[in-house]
Amino acid sequence: MNDPLNLADYIDHTLLKAAATPSDIRKLCEEAAEHGFKAVCINPGYIQLALECLSESEVKVATVAGFPLGALTPEQKAREAALSVEMGADEVDMVINIGAAKAGDWDLVLRDIQAVREATEDVILKVIIETCYLTEAEKIRATELVLEAGADFVKTSTGFGSGGATLEDIQLMAKITQGKIGIKAAGGVKTPQDAQRFIEAGATRLGTSSGVALVQGEKAGEGY
Question: Which residues are the active-site ones (predicted)?
Answer without folding.
Answer: 93, 155, 184
